[in-house]
Amino acid sequence: MGYLVRGALIGLAEIVPGVSGGTIALVVGVYETIIRSAGHLVRAAVGGVRGLVRRGEERAEVRALAAQNARKVRWSALLPIGIGMLTAVILGASAIEPLLEEHPVEARALFAGLILASLVVPARMVGGAWRPREVVLGLAAAAAAFFLTAIPPAANQDPSMLVVGVAAAFAVCALVLPGVSGSFLLLTVGLYEPTLAAVNDRDLGYLGVFVLGAVVGLGAFVSGLQWLLEHHHRVTLVVMTGLMAGSLRALWPWQDEDRGLLAPADDVLPVVGLVLLGTAVVAGLLLAEARARRRHPVDAQHVADTLDAD
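The structure assignment produced for this chain is given below.
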């Protein structure tokens, strides 16, 4: 399977809430390549900026280090993966946006099933049985996410560019940590549909801010994730699991325009069927991921080690 096709599979995962692009990258065997290259790319970019403000021998030294990191990026893999992802996102967005507009209940049901099964990933990566205080912490994180996703969306307002950039910075974590869905994060803050519309309408202003936020987020999150996993491994994943669980409120199929929860309607049986379908899809992906892990073991601590490796 070529890097272009692998990138397309990751891109398709990125636009479906509940399916982690990081998980797909792991399954198709390019996860470590992406993480290593991202780490070197971030270091090269930071070094390049630092080189602009330094002088003399110090500037030359900083630039040399940045160039060294740039050479370590696997461009032959990263570029086709990126092209494949971009192509898949553009094509997939045109198919998903009409689905959300015409069948919102069914779409939320399918996405809820995807998320339910995905909860297994961060919960499993905690390592061993949860301690009582971790259960309490996870429940607190879930409660916080539940109440945050209950906040009604702003009426008749386009999201500000600041909000778009910040959301993109957090959503990009889906490429870094398997089990986390960037699209789901956008969905819970009400930016999923506007982002799909921006892709389909070729809104370059919105997309430019989104990409900039994602780049900044990748640079910050790579370092932040490394520190959290090294110093607070279990707590980080416990909180992540709780946040994902609580955010499921955003995917309750029957809602009003202000995100108020409604009782199930007459279509309860097909809706439940879609939830089960979404669960089955992710369960299949997790089985494939398990086989990939047996061949090439990668866990959360290994991510931190990888990011720290030269």
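Interim note for the steering committee: Residues 3-308 form one domain. The chain has one domain: 3-308.
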